[in-house]
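R.M. (postdoc): so does anyone remember the format we settled on? I'll just put the structure tokens first.
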């Protein structure tokens, strides 16, 4: 027995001596490439796939001299993965699609050399069972969540093809190469240059964000510059925006957003969860997210929302300061959210809904409360109608919903109402919204109300507080939903993707379906009033005095007396009143139908009353309500005037030197008074963009003129010809 013990001891001694000799003989040039066995990526998992040879020693095992991630734009990976536009020092690929790397060994690779694997690790505690540690072998008999193969072997260099799973975690992975030796596992050391970004893949059929339409995919993933529509339904304006999803540092900033939200690593491969988490994180409510909303008009401690021209500055400021950026309104939230989604590879677009309802109390109606005299009760009227509202759509499958509800999903980062305790909205299937299937997650009822709610006027009884409907407008909300045409700077009407035509049989069916899930539409039919009130469309030039006309139509055979309340307000585009500049209470006596059925009343609106109260993106909102003395009936009418437009001045410094103490001036007769802006420094090759809101004062042809002046550069002028329509 003692003899056998000595033999075993002798074998162990020889093994240890051989190992020591091997360590001494290895070229010190490559010693910093290696680490032994117990490195972070859970070597016990690796050994499940590569059992050690416990006895004998073979010094012919592979030794790794170099690992090349093939990350340059002119190499094979980035063009094939459509990631060549990213400004990054690392390899960026899309999941569900093969990428390649080159491994240089100390000797030519042979097919029998299957003792090596490429390892990918993400997060702070990687585990194979959670998909955060992925060992990839080229051996055909060894299974891995990610496929691996030898693409080419020339001399000592082996090209390895690796295909990440189409549902793998999206984020920044660490890369190692490991080799099984008779003495344990040897693994390359941590090298940040080998870090790998894996994104969602709209080109891969197995990915949940696969988008088959090539033009739509090109627009909604790869286009860096977009158009955001705003203004009024009958006078739309366009705002260019630099999404900048490929700019240096933006990808890391987007991943930081998920880190800041403490989003579990294992959830970051699920497009549904990523979009929902981001809709909460893009606003600063609840979680110190990216942007602070501000609709007050006072932007003293930040940047006015109208001053932003792109997402890059916002995202880089947030990731560097770790604090919310000031300030945003709906189109800024939507634009930055669009950058986040496109940057991670999720197809996304910004949409604008004109006359967008904000259902404050969740009853899927827009309730306007009138007092006993027919005047709007501003304290009890909580719902509002935004002149326009921007949100996002992202494209993905919805395995959590019945078949047919995948595709475009509405998501909204503007903080309006809470969802599951946080200010967020969506993703909600656009198909579900259109067909009234508002029982499905997430937040479909709120989005349904934004495009398809009724505006109901109620008269409040002062004695018992009961509300009686006096007028229902079923076609005012969701007048038009638009987005950008793929590949063109043109507008596309996508209203039919959200709702059926007003008054159509399909729409009635949808409303009935929505009622099954809690859409309690007003079913009471208000009594037909025998007096009608209307405010005709006005040709108004903002800045001038004008006349507000009320038209009364008495359809009865008796005289009627109407006590009217006329209110004129400067209203933000969100429907929130900034200030009231007009309030009149005329009494109008109407003749009977046989004498004179239609009568008019005219009142003057002076520019001096409203011009000093205008705010950016403001509308003049007039509402007339009245009560018929003889019958007690309530009559109403509304009219919105919006004439704002934007002027943008752009300049690029083409020189190799900086420009200092620069003044830019712009003015236009009948359009805007002279204005100037001072820039202390315009660096070489950089650009400036100055956008200003203006209100044309008169119709007809005119010009906008701009100049730039500094000590180093004089006589720089620009002009634009335009025609202001009445």
């Amino acid at each position: 027995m003692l003899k056998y013990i000595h033999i075993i001891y002798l074998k162990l001694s020889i093994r240890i001596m051989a190992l020591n000799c091997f360590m001494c003989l290895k070229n010190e040039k490559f010693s910093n490439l290696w680490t032994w066995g117990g490195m972070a990526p859970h070597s016990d998992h690796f050994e499940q796939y590569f059992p050690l040879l416990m006895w004998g020693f073979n010094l012919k095992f592979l030794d790794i001299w170099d690992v090349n991630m093939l990350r340059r734009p002119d190499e094979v990976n980035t063009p094939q993965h459509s990631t060549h536009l990213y400004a990054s020092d690392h390899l960026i690929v899309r999941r569900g699609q093969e990428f390649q790397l080159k491994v240089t060994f100390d000797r030519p690779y042979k097919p029998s050399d299957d003792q090596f694997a490429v390892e990918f690790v993400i997060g702070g505690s990687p585990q194979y069972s959670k998909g955060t540690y992925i060992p990839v072998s080229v051996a055909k008999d060894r299974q891995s969540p990610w496929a691996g193969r030898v693409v080419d072997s020339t001399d000592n260099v082996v090209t390895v093809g690796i295909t990440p799973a189409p549902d793998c975690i999206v984020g920044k992975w660490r890369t190692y190469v490991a080799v099984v030796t008779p003495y344990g596992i040897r693994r390359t050391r941590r090298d940040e240059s080998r870090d790998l970004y894996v994104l969602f893949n709209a080109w891969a059929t197995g990915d949940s964000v696969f988008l088959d339409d090539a033009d739509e995919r090109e627009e909604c993933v790869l286009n860096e510059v977009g158009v955001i529509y705003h203004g009024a339904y009958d006078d739309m304006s366009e705002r260019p925006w630099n999404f900048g999803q490929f700019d240096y540092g933006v990808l890391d900033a987007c991943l930081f957003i998920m880190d800041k939200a403490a989003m579990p690593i294992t959830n970051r491969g699920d497009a549904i969860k990523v979009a929902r988490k981001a809709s909460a994180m893009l606003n600063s409510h609840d979680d110190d997210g990216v942007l602070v909303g501000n609709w007050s008009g006072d932007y003293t401690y930040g940047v006015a929302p109208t001053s932003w021209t792109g997402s890059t500055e916002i995202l880089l400021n947030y990731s560097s300061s770790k604090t919310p950026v000031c300030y945003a309104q709906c189109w800024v939230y939507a634009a930055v959210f669009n950058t986040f989604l496109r940057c991670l590879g999720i197809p996304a677009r910004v949409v604008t809904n004109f006359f967008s309802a904000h259902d404050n109390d969740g009853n899927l109606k827009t309730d306007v409360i009138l007092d006993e005299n027919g005047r709007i009760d501003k304290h009890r009227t909580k719902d509002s109608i935004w002149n326009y509202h921007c949100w996002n759509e992202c494209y993905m499958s919805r395995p959590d919903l019945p078949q047919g509800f995948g595709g475009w999903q509405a998501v909204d980062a503007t903080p309006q109402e809470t969802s599951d305790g946080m200010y967020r909205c969506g993703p909600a299937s656009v198909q579900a919204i259109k067909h009234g299937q508002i029982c499905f997650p997430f937040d479909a009822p709120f989005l349904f109300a934004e495009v398809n709610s009724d505006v109901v006027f109620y008269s409040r009884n002062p004695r018992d507080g009961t509300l009686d409907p006096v007028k229902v407008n079923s076609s005012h909300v969701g007048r038009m939903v638009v987005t950008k045409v793929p590949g063109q700077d043109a507008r596309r009407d996508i209203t039919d993707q959200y709702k059926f035509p007003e008054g159509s049989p399909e729409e009635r069916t949808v409303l009935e379906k929505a009622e099954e899930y809690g859409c309690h539409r007003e079913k009471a039919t208000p009594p037909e009033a025998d007096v009608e009130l209307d405010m005709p469309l006005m040709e108004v030039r903002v800045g001038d005095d004008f006349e507000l006309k009320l038209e009364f139509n008495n359809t009865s055979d008796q005289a009627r007396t109407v006590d009217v309340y006329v209110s004129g307000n400067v209203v933000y585009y969100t429907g929130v009143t900034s200030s009231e500049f007009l309030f009149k209470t005329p009494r109008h006596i109407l003749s009977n139908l046989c004498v004179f059925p239609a009568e008019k009343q005219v009142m003057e609106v002076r520019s001096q009353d409203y011009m000093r109260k205008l705010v950016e993106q403001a509308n003049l909102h007039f509402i007339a309500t009245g009560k018929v003395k003889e019958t007690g009936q309530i009559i109403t009418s509304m009219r919105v005037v919006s004439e704002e437009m934007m002027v943008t001045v752009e300049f690029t410094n083409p020189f190799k030197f900086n420009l200092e103490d620069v003044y830019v001036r712009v003015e236009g007769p009948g359009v805007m008074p002279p204005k100037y802006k001072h820039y202390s420094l315009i660096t070489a090759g950089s650009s400036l963009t100055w956008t200003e809101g203006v209100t044309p004062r008169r119709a007809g042809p005119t010009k906008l003129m701009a100049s730039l002046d500094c000590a180093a550069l004089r006589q720089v002028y620009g002009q634009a010809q335009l025609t202001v329509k009445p």
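R.M.: ...and that's the designed sequence above, right after the tokens. Also worth knowing: The longest strand covers residues 384-396. The chain has four domains: 24-199, 222-516, 531-641, 645-724.
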